[in-house]
């Protein structure tokens, strides 16, 4: 069977499963549509949350980020997992006790203000829409690589599948497809990683293999990796970072951004009890960690595999790396996977010194220039897009065709599951917060259901359009999504629970101050609304205020939000008694309202 | 009614204390061991590198999982002790 047929079988099989679930899990009420009826088992919800959270970026890009950045990019690992600790302790159980359907619901009620609700809706929509663009384009890339259809057709197919289960099933359909998608994506990620760990270290568990001995050379894998990439002018994989302040703030921004992202928070509204929300956050992190603990192993091993493919003499015990560097791979003898990926343009070769061999090294390192000149190298000749590491892994490690098919299904599952979660957050904010609670409070249950389905269909169309015509700034918008969630939503939610004194004026002033400060800082370095050339300062470390990068500013924005909200609330009146009672009631699990048994 | 109120206030205080403790550990492993104190821990070798690196790419995540389950377990006991569970 051809590789194409195998890929088609795996992707088609997974789609049949999702459609089957869509037919089985139709939403009968708004409660079904918004919170899957509120009766989802905490472990099931943990698994759905993991799929909801792990996007195309986690599945496809994370290992590549780690491979190229090494220790410095550990920020993503800690940031995107540490957020669940604060979510479990500071937000999820209390918002579950509150017992309504959306994030703006809580902000609107707690701060007894339509303005606060609308500010929250706007923040939610901007954060979620920017985030969903990447999912649609990610699905398009996976389709075009594995199923040989144009990326635009891939995006339409992805949109059609999500439409089927999200419009008819709402949160109920999404929850159970996410569980299936989690299983598909974790198997797809783990199997190649296990094989590669076995090949390189003899240890089948990647997270242990990474810290054990490299079989071929007899030295620890990470030490071997450092030696090899050092000989090519790169800094150590494990090299420390000088700007620790920025590293701390970036990690903190990712953590509180994670905790404040609405599509993650609403998953915890689906469990029956407050205690379940706490357990469920733990399970979610277990399922996420299965991938995140493996990712650094995949990254470091893929980097070593790539380097020793290009410089075969560097693979074993090496006496003299200079001599080994002479024996670079002859281009005409390159392995098949390099040929395959050359066709996609994600991997390119240019023989700069006309020696017919592939030289891959760090030509941006001035200290390495003389060394490279001595070896007769005239620039780096092999450019590899970070994103292909995970996708090409099975081919690099010579794994059978069905593993490649599995990776195709896994990448698409990761993109679809996150897209569906985001789309639900967007559509429920529109149908529930804008239509039901702001514009037309007298809408019937049936009317709201229809509004929810139409909003979902509209959100899917918008996401498809943006996926087909991604704005030029699409790559930078992750900073925007996390910045907004960290600087506006997270502090407002936390203060709403942990303080009885914060009033509507304080909360609104705080959210706006945090949001505006963060946007101004991001736009100063990345351009007004990301339009190239409109930035007021160059985006380089020496121009950042005390070394804080625009990506790390969300944490500072959050501190501004807290400070302004506190100052304004102290200067103005106390919240009314019934609001203070509301705050007390969300703090205690007792009386969380009957939910469906599980 | 007054008893209920003091009971509830005690429960909330105990919860905030527990959260504070957990978040100190959370910050210590991630911002401490993995980032700020990494140079101090560089003498402790772990599989070809140092302890700080291990915390950054493995240890902190494992600690986070432990923290959430510990918190959930402790809170269940608090819910029962104060009679505020569901």
How does this model look, in words?
The complex is a heterodimer of chains A (598) and B (86). Chain A has 598 residues and is mainly α. Chain A folds into two domains: 3-300 and 399-470, Hydantoin permease, CATH 1.10.4160; 312-387, no CATH class. Chain A is built from 24 helices and two strands. A two-stranded antiparallel sheet of chain A has the order 1-2. Residues 594-598 of chain A have low confidence and may be disordered. Chain B is mainly alpha-helical and 86 residues long. Chain B has one domain. Chain B is 77% helix and 5% strand. Chain B is built from two helices and two strands. Chain B has helices at 2-36, 51-81; strands at residues 45-46, 49-50. Chain B is elongated. In chain B, 40% of the residues are buried. The model of chain B has no long low-confidence stretch (mean pLDDT 93). The interface between A and B is large, with 53 and 44 residues.
